[in-house]
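User: We ran a pulldown and think these components assemble together. Before we commit to crystallization trials, I'd like a predicted model of the whole complex to look at. Sequences follow.
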Amino acid sequence: MEMLHLTAGRVAGLLSRRGVAVFSTSGVKMASHGGVTEQTDMSVPLYCDRLDTPLPDRPYKDTLSAADKSLKQKEKGPWNSLSKEEKLALYRIMFNETYAEMKKPTGEWKTVLGGIFFFIGFTGLVVLWQRYYVYPPHPRTLDDEWQAMQVKRMLDMRVNPVEGFSAKWDYEKGQWK
Amino acid sequence: MFRAALRLSVSGARSLTRSRPQYTASVAARSYSHGKQETDEEFDARWVTYFNKPDIDAWELRKGMNTLIGYDLVPEPKILEAALRACRRLNDLASAIRILEAVKDKSGPHKEIYPYVLQELRPTLSELGIPTPEELGIDKA
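Assistant: Here's a predicted model for the assembly, 318 residues in total across the polymer chains.
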C-alpha cells in the first residue's frame, strides 16, 4: 500500500511535467508552420492520364494562350478545315500524354534488377567480412591430419562393421573396398 | 458494388427532369442468377440512345465514355459513332481522337478489332473530319 502511494505520487508528478511538455512542444509546432509542401487541391476536378479513363474530369491545359483560344473557336466549325497540326494542337490542349506515351515501357525493371544485384553483392561483402572478423578460430578437428587419425580410430573401433562404415573397409588388404 | 456506385453518381449529380438512362439494369457482360438478362442488342441500343441525346453535355459524354470503357467489352461501332457525333455537337475534337485511342487499347491482344472498328467508322470519320491517331502520328510514343 505504501509503495502504491509512492508510485501514484510519482506518476502524478510525471504527468504534470509531461503536460507542460506537451503544451510547449505544440507551441513550438505552431510557431514553425510553413514547412509543409504545396498539396494538390483535391476539392476541384483533377486531370489524370489513365488508360481506363479516356476522358478526364478537366482538360489538361486550363489557361489558354490567345492562339489556343482562337484554335478553340475554329474547332466549333467543320473539322475538315483544320490542318493536321491544328488537330494535334487541340489534342495536346486537352490531354497530356497520348495512350502510346502512357503505355511506353519505363525500363524500371533495369533499376529493380540492378538494385537486387547490388544488394546481393553488398551482402556478399558482409559475409566475407564476417568470415575474417567474426568467425571463431578454425577447429583443429577439421584438419586433414586429425580427420585421418579419426578415421583410423573409427576403423579400429569397428564402427558399424556389418553394413556401415567399417563394413566398407577391407581389413585384410588395408584399404577401402 | 459497381452498380450501386453508378446509381449514386447518376442520380446524385444530374437533374431529375431528364429521363435518366437505366444504368441499373443488368448488363450483358454480367451474369446474374436471377432477373431479366439484357441482350447485346438492348445494351447497344441503350448506349446509342445515351450518346444520341441532342443536348448531351460534356460531363455526360465523359461519364458515358469512362463507364463504357470500364466494361469488359469493346463497344460496337454504332455506339462509338454516336459518341463521336456527340463530340462533334460539343465541339470537342480531342475527345473524339481519345475515344479511338481508347478503343484500340481496349482491344488488348485482339489486334483485328481496331482495324475493323475503323473500317466501320470510316464514313463517319471522313464526314466529321476526325483523324485517327495513326494519321496524327500519336499512335507511337
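Residues 26 and 32 of chain A are 10 Å apart (CA to CA). That may be worth checking against your pulldown data before setting up trials.

User: Thanks, that helps.
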